[in-house]
Amino acid sequence: METSLRYSKSLRIHAKEKLPFNSKTHLQLHGELDTATGGPSYFSAMIRHLFPEALTGLGVGFHYDKRHKLRSHVRGKKEFPLGANKLVTFNIKGRCDFDQDFNQKNPVGAAEFAWNIMNFKEDQDVRFKVGYEMFNKVPYMQIRENNWTLNANMKGKWNLRFDL
C-alpha cells in the first residue's frame, strides 16, 4: 500500500492500493482521511488499463466524497516522448466526472511537458512538469524529488505531498 501525507488547507493522510488483474490492468483503490475533521475526505475505486505500446492509459471507476456524493469518472492519458530516452515527454490527459444521472460534471483536460532527471544527485531523481489546464484555463507546475512533491498553479492554489 502506498501512503502519503498531503497538505493544502489541512493535513490529509492518503492511501492507495493497486490490485493487479494482469500485467496491463489493475484495480486501484484510494482514499483520504482529513486530520482537521477526523473523517474521510473521499474514497475511489477505478479499473485502469495500460497500453504500453501506445504509451496510453485509460481508467473508469467510482468516486465518493462528502460534497458530491457518488460519481462515476473516466480518465485517459497519452504520452509523447520527445527523445529516444523518454526523459522528456509531452502529455495530454483528461478526466470527466458524471453524477448519478450521468450528467457531466467537472471536466478536466491538460497538456503538459514533463522532464525526468534520473540521479540528479546520487540516489535522487527529480521531475519538473509545466502544463496548462484547458477547462479552468490555468497554467500549473510540479516539482517532484523522490518522496516530495510540490504542485502549484497560477491562481494561487498549491499543495505539498510527502510519500511515506
Automatic annotation (TrEMBL):
Function: Voltage-dependent rectifying anion channel that facilitates the translocation between chloroplast and cytoplasm of phosphorylated carbohydrates such as triosephosphate, 3-phosphoglycerate and inorganic phosphate (Pi) depending of ATP to triosephosphate ratio in the plastidial intermembrane space; in high triosephosphate/ATP conditions (e.g. photosynthesis), export of triosphosphate from chloroplast (outward rectifying channels), but in high ATP/triosephosphate conditions (e.g. dark phase), import of phosphosolutes (inward rectifying channels).
Family membership: Belongs to the plastid outer envelope porin OEP21 (TC 1.B.29) family.
Any one Gene Ontology cellular component term annotated for this protein: etioplast membrane
Primary subcellular site in the record, as a coarse category: plastid
Top-level taxon of origin: Eukaryota
Keywords: Chloroplast, Ion transport, Membrane, Plastid, Plastid outer membrane, Porin, Transmembrane, Transmembrane beta strand, Transport
GO MF annotation list: porin activity; voltage-gated monoatomic anion channel activity
BP term (GO), one: regulation of monoatomic anion transport
Locations listed in the record: Plastid, Chloroplast outer membrane; Plastid, Etioplast membrane
Species of provenance: Raphanus sativus
Entry membrane topology: Multi-pass membrane protein
Protein name: Outer envelope pore protein 21B, chloroplastic
Lineage: Eukaryota, Viridiplantae, Streptophyta, Embryophyta, Tracheophyta
